[in-house]
């Protein structure tokens, strides 16, 4: 994954391929408990996906928002804003990085066939739900 996110012209770049043509697919709100565990994700303010397995979530705030983008080559990228103890961290969320890699892995065939779009589809929601069901240590 690329560490460069903004072009010299100020354009958002894909974290995978540095392509500058990016589309906002949706928002992801992360909710957690007092034990630093993710409890649910709310997608675009209307689709709630509960996290049944314990996933570490190092940020305790009501202001955890993530922006899901897709470049015109089909790669997903997530930009994260996480509040913790009065500060906002930008793009430090490893769980969202893992989700990005998971989505890119799951959509590789569609990307190879150039069969993808730039909306929050039920397939993408299903992949996010699948990701949350994976047991972690």
List the helices and strands and how they pair.
Elements: E1 22-32, E2 38-43, E3 47-50, E4 65-71, E5 76-84, E6 87-90, H1 94-106, H2 108-112, H3 122-133
Antiparallel strand pairs: 1-2, 1-4, 2-3, 4-5, 5-6
Give structural attributes:
22% helix; 3 helices; single chain; 6 strands; alpha+beta; 137 residues; six-stranded antiparallel β-sheet
The total tally of domains equals 1
Largest beta-sheet details? 6 strands, antiparallel
Question: What proportion of the residues is helical, as a percent range?
Answer: 10-25%
**DSSP helical segment count:** 3
Please provide the count of β strands. Answer: 6
Write down the overall mean pLDDT: 90
- Judged by helices, strands and strand pairing, the structural class is alpha+beta
Strand residue percentage: 25-35%
Q: What's the gyration radius in Å?
A: 15 Å
- Give the topology string: H per helix, E per strand: EEEEEEHHH
Tell me the overall shape: globular
- Cα-to-Cα separation, first versus last residue: 24 Å
Major sheet: arrangement of strands = 3-2-1-4-5-6
Poorly predicted sequence stretches spanning 5 or more consecutive residues = none
């Amino acid at each position: 994954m690329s560490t460069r996110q903004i072009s010299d012209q100020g354009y958002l770049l894909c974290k995978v391929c540095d392509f500058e043509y990016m589309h906002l697919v949706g928002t992801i709100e992360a909710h957690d408990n007092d034990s630093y565990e993710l409890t649910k994700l709310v997608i675009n303010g209307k689709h709630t996906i509960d996290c049944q397995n314990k996933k570490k979530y190092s940020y305790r705030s009501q202001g955890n928002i993530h922006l899901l983008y897709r470049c015109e080559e089909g790669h997903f990228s997530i930009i994260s804003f996480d509040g913790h103890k009065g500060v906002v961290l930008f793009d430090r969320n490893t769980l969202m990085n893992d989700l990005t890699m998971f989505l890119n892995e799951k959509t590789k065939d569609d990307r190879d066939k150039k069969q993808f779009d730039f909306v929050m589809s039920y397939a993408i929601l299903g992949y996010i739900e699948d990701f949350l069901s994976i047991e972690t240590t």
